[in-house]
Design brief:
The protein is mainly beta. Helix content is 5%, strand content 56%. Keywords: Signal.
Length: 801
């Protein structure tokens, strides 16, 4: 503690303060060796401006302040009549919120709710104050991070194929093939799909038909979350609008470019801690977060996979061991967008006609459309859609609103169209709510007048009434119950109304039962009942039995199947059917391998008899190498071990395959625009190689491949034993260079041994010793993959020039 007697002259006071601050800067004794230059400068600022404390009289103190458990640095106080005083400016700077008319200076002990503990021996003061009179920064906990790794694509070409053929009675046969050819590099992806079919009826010739499906080029801008697509595409749509297949240009938001971005608003809890505390978050009884929080307000976000209504608890345990439990309810709906987040798409082109029947069937009238969603707040998302073509304009808007913390989500929309002088209206309304046991949802869309959209001009109109309602309840012992209702009506057609009831229950871990009733409300005779029992057995074998009854009769079906493991292998499926004049069965055998999947089977039900076979997979050309693989829908990587064969490769620490004789391996599937960890074990490599890294992050772009090198370099290495002319080992620490290159050198160890890994086929070693240099020559021969020992070699001084 530093005390200075006050006198009536101001200049001695200022001089003494200057000397005191200088001593603090030199020795740091008042900061207990933790004060920084910034803290001292801050103290000087407070002391110079604390005129009210200077006028107070008594004793000046410079104390280490701890405010609600947080370090506040060195602060200037006044000590009078056994109490601490501080200026209003000082208190505001350390975090207090004071009214404008507060008397200056302020007696700390007189502040309501403030606890002051002055320790003269430590030259410190501990202050605990209510958070209502403090202004502290808000600490954000458990905030999701939007990591954006840089994605790459190496030039390549990919062919996906799916071939299926049948052979039936009387020589009838068919073969079909779906293919996708894809070319890609860092500039984008060019893709084209096609369907080819060949059929032959009994006694007829083969009839061939091929049709192009979609051709497009796309490129993406991950930082802007935008994708540009040129060619055949689908227009974007909302729940109350319809998509249209067009050929043209599309530009819009693509959240898949930033897969770590959480688009839905996360339920969060805002609280405060008087002292530094440990905070734990429990949602529905399961711990979701555990961490530290300083004194002051904090915001704690839940995890993004919470859906529906739930109960949350926040447990605060302060530094004194006192625990406080805070309960709150939450509701999460992934249909909503986070506040300020925008999702949009714009398209322009011509409508595709007779898709799947003609390769180049396009309309002549251009059409344009746009869709937009925007998070007005975390509880409200607005949306709009518009489209136009010759003689038609259609536009509307809507949104979704979260009703309170656990009130469910209500949605609605209103759209208007004008076509050839005829107008129409569409309106919709929906509501959904769910928790861990109960769920309810209902929605309906209705059109009036002559409501039309672009799809209406090239196909059926939208339904005049489309409504659905569903409710479900899960119990602990009786199983799960659900009830649903569907109402659908098109213009100039009768309505279709169905109600469906379902019950299901798990019997332990290996069996389940389900009962389903489906009833047509407009035709009482149309009723069906299904009873299904399923048993899961060892080795991925599943056996099920289903009993079906409808207006045509009763049927029994027995199914047994074995699914292949993810690494591949054989699988099979068998089925028997009895009743409803459909007696018979089916058998199928599948093989999932590294290079694709093949299947073959027979079907004999009723009067139908045929056999079938199929195959699907992919061929990839990258880096002048051709790879066969399973069907590839997303990103992939080609791994190179630089010619080293049979190296095991792991994807996320799971063995995915071994490199071929060229040291190459195709790894699929990978998540596009995400970090996929690929690794190799150096213990699986030969001893005579050098490796740059054993782990790599592969981040491919969408539907493209990236090339990953581990930097494996074969080396000529050996342990060379060098002796002098008398046969003694050369001195420890002598410098050895290879072929006169100082960069390729090493130090001799014990017994004259030196390890060299930059050898050539013919090598001359020069050894630099205190007694003089000597030279030794040898040829490198190594038929094994181990590090050979060469020597002892005599190092001759007389061989030097």
């Amino acid at each position: 503690m530093v005390r200075r007697a006050r006198n009536i002259f101001r200049w001695p006071t200022a001089l003494a303060e200057l000397i005191l601050l200088q001593s603090l800067l030199v020795s740091g004794s008042y900061a207990a060796d933790t004060a920084t230059a910034d803290q001292v400068a801050h103290t000087k600022l407070i002391s110079v401006n604390s005129d009210s404390v200077v006028r107070l009289g008594g004793t000046d103190l410079y104390l280490e302040v701890t405010l609600n458990g947080a370090d506040g640095g060195l602060v200037h106080f006044g000590y009078l009549n056994g109490e601490l005083w501080a200026s209003t400016e000082t208190l505001r700077q350390i975090g207090f919120v004071l009214p404008a008319n507060t008397p200056d200076p302020v007696r700390l002990g007189g502040m309501q709710g403030v606890e002051v503990n002055y320790e003269a021996s430590r030259q410190a003061v501990t202050i605990n104050a209510p958070l209502q009179i403090l202004k502290l920064d808000t600490t954000v906990l458990n905030a999701p991070e939007n990591n954006r790794p840089r994605a790459t694509a190496s030039p390549g070409v990919l062919l996906n194929y799916n071939i299926y053929g049948t052979g039936g009675q009387n020589g009838s046969s068919s073969v079909s093939a779906f293919t996708e050819i894809r070319a890609f590099n860092d500039s984008g992806v060019l893709s084209s799909t096609a369907l080819s079919q060949a059929t032959r009826s009994a006694g007829d010739h083969w009839q061939n038909r091929s049709v192009r499906l979609d051709t497009s080029w796309s490129t993406s801008f991950p930082d802007s979350r935008l994708t540009l697509r040129i060619g055949d595409t689908l227009t974007d749509a909302l729940s109350w609008s319809r998509a249209t297949r067009i050929a043209g240009v599309q530009l819009g938001t693509n959240f898949a470019l930033q897969p770590y971005l959480i688009t839905a608003p996360l339920p969060s809890f805002i609280g405060s801690a008087t002292l530094p505390s440990n905070v734990q978050l429990y949602v529905n009884g399961i711990q979701q977060y555990n961490g530290k929080v300083p004194a002051g307000p904090f915001q704690l976000s839940t995890i993004p996979n919470i859906s529906g209504a739930g109960n949350a608890q926040v447990v605060l345990t302060d530094t004194l061991g006192r625990s406080t439990t805070l309960n709150f309810s939450l509701y999460d709906e992934h249909r909503l967008l986070q506040k300020g987040l925008s999702d949009w798409s714009a398209e322009f082109g011509v409508v595709r006609e007779n898709y799947g029947l003609e390769s180049f069937g396009y309309s002549h009238d251009p059409t344009g459309s746009g869709t937009w969603r925007y998070g007005v707040s975390n509880n409200m998302t607005m949306e709009a859609h518009a489209e136009a073509t010759r003689g038609l304009i259609n536009a509307g808007g809507g949104g979704a609103l979260l009703l309170g913390s656990a009130g469910g989500v209500v949605s609605g929309s209103l759209a208007r169209s004008d076509h050839a002088g005829q107008s129409g209206t569409l309106y919709s309304l929906g509501y959904s709510w769910r928790n861990d046991r109960f769920n309810f949802s209902g929605s309906g869309i209705r059109t009036t007048g002559d409501y039309s959209d672009v799809a209406t001009l090239y196909g059926p109109p939208p339904p005049s009434v489309s409504a659905q309602m569903a409710a479900g309840y899960s119990t602990k012992h009786l199983g799960n119950f659900s009830l649903s209702y569907i109402h659908l009506r098109y213009p100039l057609q009768d309505a279709t109304r169905y109600v469906n009831a379902n019950w299901s229950k798990s019997m332990g871990q290996s069996a389940s039962l389900s009962l389903n009733l489906n009833q047509n409300l407009d035709k009482a005779a149309e009723r069906s009942v299904f009873l299904v029992a399923t048993f899961s057995m060892e080795r991925n074998v599943t056996v099920s039995s289903s009993l079906q009854h409808d207006s045509t009769g009763t049927g029994l079906v027995l199914n047994a199947s074995q699914s292949p493991p993810s690494e591949g292998g054989l699988s099979w499926r068998a089925a028997l059917r009895q009743g409803d004049k459909q007696n018979g069965g089916q058998g199928e055998l599948d093989y999932l391998g590294r290079y694709g999947q093949v299947q073959a089977g027979v079907n004999a039900v009723g009067n139908t008899r045929y056999g079938y076979a199929g195959a699907d997979g992919a061929l990839v050309l990258m880096g002048s190498d051709v790879f066969a693989a399973r069907h590839i829908n997303d990103g992939f990587a080609v791994i190179s071990t630089d010619g080293v064969a049979k190296v095991p490769v792991k994807l996320e620490n799971n063995l995915i395959g071994t490199t071929d004789s060229r040291g190459m391996l195709l790894v699929s599937p990978l998540n596009a625009y995400q970090n996929n960890q690929i690794s190799i074990d150096p213990m699986d490599l030969p001893a005579d190689v050098r490796i740059d890294r054993v782990k790599a992050l592969a981040t491919p772009t969408d539907r493209a491949g990236t090339l990953v090198h581990f930097g494996i370099t074969p080396i000529r290495a050996a342990s060379v034993i060098l002796h002098g002319a008398e046969g003694e080992p050369l001195p420890l620490g002598s410098q050895v260079t290879i072929n006169g290159q100082s960069s390729n050198g090493a130090i001799i160890g014990f017994d004259g041994t030196v390890y060299l890994d930059t050898l050539d086929e013919h090598n001359t070693l020069i050894v630099h010793m205190p007694a003089g240099d000597c030279r030794a020559s040898f040829d490198y021969h190594n038929e094994s993959k181990t590090i050979p020992a060469i020597g002892p070699l005599l190092c001759h001084k007389d061989a030097l020039p």
